[in-house]
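Dear colleagues,

For the upcoming journal club I promised to circulate an example of a predicted protein-ligand complex. I picked one with zinc ion because it came up in last month's discussion. The inputs are reproduced below in full, followed by the predicted structure.
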Amino acid sequence: MDRRHFLNATFASIATTVCPHCIGSAAAQGLGGADAELLCGAASSLRSSQYNRVLTTGNKNLDRALSSEMKKQQKLYVLRPAFYLFTDKIKNAFATTKKFPEFPTSDGSIVYGIELMKEQLARGYWGGAVVAGVLAHEYGHIYQYRSGYFKRMRKLHKTVKFVELHADYMSGYYIGRKYQESGERVNVRTVASATYDIGDYHYNSPSHHGTPVERTIMLKAGFDLHNSNRNLSIDQIAAEGYRTIMKLYFKKRG
Ligand SMILES: [Zn+2]
């Protein structure tokens, strides 16, 4: 199926996000706590009592497209998180280590607001790529947690900035792989700008994700890595992402 058909057939009537706000505490949202940790995203106003988790978009074609996308990402990340949508009017997406009762053996969960997805898919031709990029970013957080990179990146700065930029790097690699497989040329800067135009400049906020420019640079760097080496494992990609951050921000080589 070509990309335009894929988008028109599956994403046209409904659209979905990233972790743009990420300012609430995990415990406050009922998504973290003693046995689970919120890894990305979630607006402060998202409380467990408001959180209406569902397993369908209400559109069978879109559900199939999302399921197919999750399976492709599982192959790169070698992880099987559960995937949920929520219907609340909060535009966000996030990853959590929480395992919900329906999928007790999952590698955590990725949760995506339908409102955000709708907004992203409505952006036109590259809307599907933005959604895939957001999913890959959230997969990246679950990978970081399980591999130790989450703690490692978190120690680098008082904000979550480097955790986020590292996830963006892995997402960029995935986008390169996805469109190389489809044979379609993708303009990664266009995808990045559509994804990160909601970026933030709250440099001192603990939830600062990096500026849109910083996030675009990291997504592009991951994408370029794929162009130079198309067969890397997720461990190798993550290590390159770490090295890139150390080089750009801490002037370290190697
Ligand atoms: Zn994130």
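Two points we might discuss: The CA atoms of residues 3 and 182 lie 8 Å apart. The chain has one domain: 3-250.

See you all on Thursday,
B. R.
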